[in-house]
């Protein structure tokens, strides 16, 4: 699933949480979040859902 890395970074910043905190809240590895934010990988839909839930947004807000 294609995720808008800029939206992810901006949403994470608005929530004032670090990558490590997002990892803990979502259950997604720090390295995976880093690779998503750098545009190296496109996460699967389940991962996007976990990240969206941890950030209190809908999946459509990140894609």
Give a short summary of the structure.
The chain is mostly helical and 63 residues long. The chain has helices at residues 5-14, 19-26, 30-37, 45-54. α2 (19-26) crosses α4.
Description:
This protein has 63 residues and is an all-alpha fold. It has one domain (5-61): lambda repressor-like DNA-binding domains (434 Repressor (Amino-terminal Domain), Orthogonal Bundle), CATH 1.10.260. 57% of the residues lie in helices and 0% in strands. The chain has four helices and no strands. It has helices at residues 5-14, 19-26, 30-37, 45-54. α2 (19-26) crosses α4. The radius of gyration is 10 Å and the shape is globular. The termini are close together. The mean pLDDT is 94.
Gap between N and C termini: 8 Å
Q: Give the averaged pLDDT, no decimals.
A: 94
As residue ranges, the low-confidence spans are: none
- Using only C-alpha atoms, the radius of gyration works out to 10 Å
Q: What shape does the CA trace take?
A: globular
* CATH architecture type: Orthogonal Bundle
The chain-level structural class is mainly alpha
Which fold name fills CATH's third level, the topology?
Answer: 434 Repressor (Amino-terminal Domain)
Helix content range: 55-70%
Give the biggest sheet. Answer: none
H/E element order:
HHHH
Percentage of residues in DSSP E strands: under 5%
């Amino acid at each position: 699933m294609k995720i808008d890395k800029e939206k992810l970074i901006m949403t994470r910043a608005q929530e004032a949480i670090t990558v490590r905190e997002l990892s803990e809240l979502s259950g997604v590895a720090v390295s995976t979040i880093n690779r998503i934010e750098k545009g190296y990988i496109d996460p699967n839909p389940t991962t996007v859902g976990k990240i969206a839930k941890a950030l209190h947004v809908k999946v459509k807000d990140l894609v």
